[in-house]
Write a structure and sequence with these properties.
Distance between the termini of chain B: 47 Å
Shape of chain A: globular
Mean pLDDT of chain B: 91
Structural class of chain B: alpha/beta
Oligomer: heterodimer
Largest interface: A-B, 12 and 16 residues
Distance between the termini of chain A: 22 Å
Number of strands of chain A: 4
Structural class of chain A: alpha+beta
CATH class of the largest domain in chain B: Alpha Beta
Order of helices and strands of chain B: HHHHEHHEHEHEHHEEHEEHHEHHHHH
Number of strands of chain B: 9
Number of helices of chain B: 18
CATH topology of the largest domain in chain B: Rossmann fold
Mean pLDDT of chain A: 88
Strand content of chain B: 5-15%
CATH architecture of chain A: 2-Layer Sandwich
Number of helices of chain A: 2
CATH class of chain A: Alpha Beta
CATH architecture of the largest domain in chain B: 3-Layer(aba) Sandwich
Order of helices and strands of chain A: EHEEHE
Helix content of chain A: 10-25%
Strand order of the largest sheet of chain B: 6-5-9-7-8
Largest sheet of chain A: 2 strands, antiparallel
Largest sheet of chain B: 5 strands, mixed
Shape of chain B: globular
CATH topology of chain A: Alpha-Beta Plaits
Strand content of chain A: 15-25%
Low-confidence stretches of chain A: 1-8
Radius of gyration of chain A: 12 Å
Amino acid sequence: MTVRTGRGAGSQLRVDPIACDGRGLCADMLPELITLDDWGFPVISREAVPADQLGDARVAIRACPKLALRLERRRD
Amino acid sequence: MRLTQTQRHRGPAAAGPATTGPATTGATGSLPRMLPAGFAAGPASLADHVARYGPLVSAGLDQRRQRPLIEEVDRAGLTGRGGAAFPTARKLAAVAAGRNPVVVANGTEAEPASAKDKVLLARSPHLVLDGAVLAAEIVGAREAVIVVHHAVRDITDQAVSERSRAGADRIRIRVVTAADRFVGGEASAVVHWIGAGISTPTGTPPRLSERGLGGAPTLVQNVETLAHLALIARYGASWFRSVGTPEEAGSMLVTILGAVREPGVHEIALGTPTGEVLSLAGGPSAPLQALLIGGYSGTWVDAADAATRPFSSAGLADLGAGVGAGLIAALPERACGLRETARVVRYLADESAGQCGPCLFGLDAVAGQLEGIAAGRTSDLRMLRRWLGQVDGRGACSHPDGAARLVRSALEVFTAELRQHARGWCAGTSSILPLPPRSRR
């Protein structure tokens, strides 16, 4: 079994900037991967979501009232 | 596709009875290719057009003819002339792979300082329409929608009816007047405008080549790109590549404005030294300090540094610039680059579609800070740099990135002005960059 780590592996969070209203729940729930900019809009980490945070990421995705957050397979 | 050998090597015929001089002899490599230099003002008629270029070489609806044409475009190395320089053959192939595709010819040209697409449509409308029809045939579309700035709507309509009277095309051509706003020229905004009358970008996914107008795979090409396509289909890839650089082949239209003797639209070979490009517009009319290259989302460069560089994206890369949509604005020493940039960035902030928070709030913050610096109220660059970092790449389209690029280049090029402004002094007495009246925004 190989463990895939580092860049290029796994999934990453993406925000749809048009749908996003800057409610900020995602940053509250996942501060390791999401911070807020000076206007309250989420800045998403470009790193792959670590395996032990995938559960929290899914909770944050479900919590978004605008359905603006999603997990995407990394393409690089 | 049938190309005769003479057509392949000869290129367009001399541009009409009024022509003189070596630029229009029709020999390989001569320019202009697209603008009828010898004709009087006004659009070339279908008869004039056919006399100059020969009849349109139809790809027909036969796939065995479409494939080689995409390969010819690939060999030509044609890239999009709307600013993004994406390889045209790759876009053609992607859309051709889909079912019931649509072609959109993008002549929105919402950039206030740019005129090259309007001039092209006003003088050579049939070359653009040839390209739109050909693109439709290549990808297997039944209809081509051409979106044009309102200034050239009538000319485009007349050219389309001229063609339909002559029974020229098997493809239906529909003309739509473009939305008059800066972001309205972005490809997804154009498709949104045609389909729903809303001129805002829609973002990806989905890609337009997969799901665009009415859900159909959609090819959006700048009108100048389509004009080049129409010429490649007639004269071939080698003819196209006989001007330009190996990496950036062919010619391109440029809009030259600001402190030059004869501002206007010219056709240049990619890779022409930037100083020579300026002399096409009569050369500088005053000592220059900087050039804005690409567009309002483009890059300021030092005028002396740029003069010797080839006008190509590779040639300008070490100055942080690229050819973009072919805008060159010459800033004289008597103008203030910071004030010019602040005016343009305020305009870009006002022109945000308002859909993405970082663009809506961020560009406003950037514009406000830059206005403060330009007016000598503050000399603090820390907040400005912080906010530039927070708008870059944060929108559904590249509007905020373009504004950030413009401001960053201004901070690099106008260092002397920054010092002067910090001491409360500004030498600027004129402005060169046109903007629509504030009341319309």
